[in-house]
Every structure is written in structure tokens, then in C-alpha cells.
Amino acid sequence: MAIMRLGRAELKVMDLEKSVDYYTNVIGLEETGRSEGRVYMKAWDEYDHHSIVLQEADSPGLDHLAFKVEKLEDLAQFEKKVELFGCTVRRVSSGTRLAEGQAIRIETPTGHQVELYHDIERLGKKVGSVNPHPWPLETRGIAPHALDHCLLTGEDVETATRFFMEALGFKQSEKIMTVDGEVMLGSFLFTGNKAHDIAFVKGPDKKLHHAAFHVDNFYEVLKAADILSRNEVQIEVTPTRHGITRGQTIYFFDPSGNRNEAFCGGYMTYADFPTITWTEDRIGQGIFYHRRELIESFMKALT
Amino acid sequence: MYNIQVEHREGKVFRCAEKEDVLTAARRQGVAIPLGCRGGGCGMCKIQVTKGRFDRGKSSMEVLPEGEREKNYSLACKTYPLGDLTIKI
After folding, report:
1. Is residue A259 within 8 angstroms of chain B, CB to CB?
2. Are B60 and A259 inside 8 Å of each other by CB?
3. Which residue of B20, B27, B38, B44 is the best one to mutate when testing the A interface, meaning the one whose CB has the most A CBs within 10 A?
4. What ranges make up the beta strands (E) of A155-270?
5. 10-residue block means of pLDDT along chain A (303 residues)?
6. Catalytically annotated residue among A174, A210, A214, A220
7. Nearest to A257 among B34, B40, B61 (CB)
8. Which residue from A123, A142, A136, A303 is spatially nearest to A214, judged by alpha carbons?
9. ipTM score of complex
């Protein structure tokens, strides 16, 4: 019984067609289907039907995140563990969204909706999986490999961390603590071997800080910046490095104000990876390794 | 071109073109309105229009609920003047 990875994020957007244009032509995802009020997309290097769902709404933000489990039977076991922890959980029936099987939907201690699922239609990749070429010819925009991770905000980062570790089996790669070590301000959690699949920073409950896409290397981050500027997308943080995860990054906003990231180069984690600690007095360097100072919007612009 | 008068800042007027948003015009002319997502989603650039008419682009209901809209609060990034305006930052 295990969670394998982050599988999808359903983002709320205010103008569906404008957002589809951005996520397909600027980010460079592929549209894979539509249902009432929703558009489904995947990155070129993903096998499953979708990793991003856009949902038309009157406010932006995160509808839900979902993690893929190893076996269908895992859902019932996780359901018990979640209830035991004291979080509410309900069943989502097969076919609620396009191409998806049944899921369980959990409300986390920070008020976010997180689903676990196993079944989803598999579309495969344009390059195939027999003697494949390294990348497809027909990509557009940034063309990331995959959805990488999401950062959420919540009042109680400590309990959120305990929930993901105890009930869902995540491990913690890094944490941000007050100087006296009393309060957890940030928590970076992984389930496979990425630096993080999901992370939390202290802030209002139920909010999305960003959804990140994985690109190959720092030149691809720079090229993402070129593509964003050419398309006059609002760039918040130009290419730089994170102290936390050591990854390289650029932050920008989708047309409804949801923050996106193109991320590369974080270290790999493994089962006995020890947790790295950052203290609050060094948080500037932890987040923006070169600038060494936070910017106002990075802490306050949430959806 | 319209004149945008900033309340409580003696003599502070900036110019905003038709179809230009108030946030972009203000920042270009050195008037500091906080900047976030520029997409009508985060609410950081919220202002109040105390005089004048404007068009409003799609703005998040969560950060700009109906009650505030009635009082002419607006997100500067989605505020398009239809004439001279007076605003409160």
C-alpha cells in the first residue's frame, strides 16, 4: 500500500478559453478532453489521460490535488487511516470526471481537498514506448515534462505534515522552523524520489501558492522566461535558484492569477533521506538563494 | 487619455489611456500600487474608485465580493477607466 506520486491538480480559472490558450500554447500542455465546464490536459512526457484539469469558476484557486496509489485496494486502507487520523473522507464515484476511475476525497487539516485514486485512462506519449525518440517534434511553448509539485498554504503546517506522514506515508525532505525551533513555518514532503511532491508554508488555510511543472535544466528555465516574456505573461521571479531543494526556478501567473513555476534540478530523495532544516532568519536564502530576501507578492499573492 | 487623481496624495495625478488598466498606468508613472498576479485573482492591487466610471475585467469573487463591488472597490489590474477617475489606494 503506497502513494506513488502527484497525479493531477484541478485548477479553478475565471475565463476557460483564455486559460486553455495559455496552458496549451504558453505552457505547452496537450488538450486531451472536455466535459461540462472542464478541460483536461497532459504534458508530453506523461502517460495518463491528464495531469491538469481546468475548471471554470468565479474565483481562481485549487479545486483539488490528487495522488495516484499503487493498487485500487489501497483506497480502502487509506480511507481507514485518514478516518483514524480524524480527517473527513468521502468516495468519489467512477466517471465523476473524464477518464477517471473511483477516488477517495479527503479534507486535509489545512482545508484543502486531496484525492487518492488508482484508475485513470492511459493515453501514452507521442514518442511511444518502444524505441522512443527522446522528445516529440510537435511541442509548443515551455513544453514541460510533467506536473511536478504544488505548494499550499495553511495555518497549522505541523499538523498538515503529521497528516501526510502518518496517514499517507509521505516523508519530509526539508522544513523551515522559527529560530527557537518551536513553530514549523514550511514543510516539504515527498513520496517517491523527488525533492517534493507537495509542500506547505504557513499562511491562510485552503489556499494555493503555486503549481509547478518540471523542465530539464536551467537553460530550459531561461527559455521558459523568454517564452513568457514574448507572450507578456506576468513574471514574478525571474530565473534563479532555491536554497530549499537546490532546484532552479521561475515563477509566473496564469491568466486568472494562479501562480505557476517551471522547476528543474532539485536533488533526488530516497527512503532514508534525512530532513534538512532551515531557520526563519535564513528563509530569504532558503527560498531565493541569490536575492536572499523574500518579496511581498510571493508571500501575499495566493489564490 | 484620462487623468487619474489619487486621493490623499496632494497633486498626485497620473495618465491612463483608454483600454489600459489602472495598475499598469500607475506603476509606469511611479505611483506605487501593490502588484501581485495581474490576473484579477490575488487581490493585492485592490483600490477604491471614489469618482468616475470604469469597466471591470474578470475579477475573483473571493477577493472582491459583491458588497465591495457595489462600493466601487476594484482590482487595479482589471480597472479600465471610461473617463477621469479619482481613486483611493
Report:
1. yes
2. no
3. B38
4. 171-177, 184-190, 198-202, 207-214, 235-241, 248-253, 259-264
5. 97 98 98 98 98 98 98 98 98 96 98 98 96 95 98 98 98 98 98 97 98 98 98 98 98 98 97 97 97 96 98
6. A210
7. B40
8. A142
9. 0.95
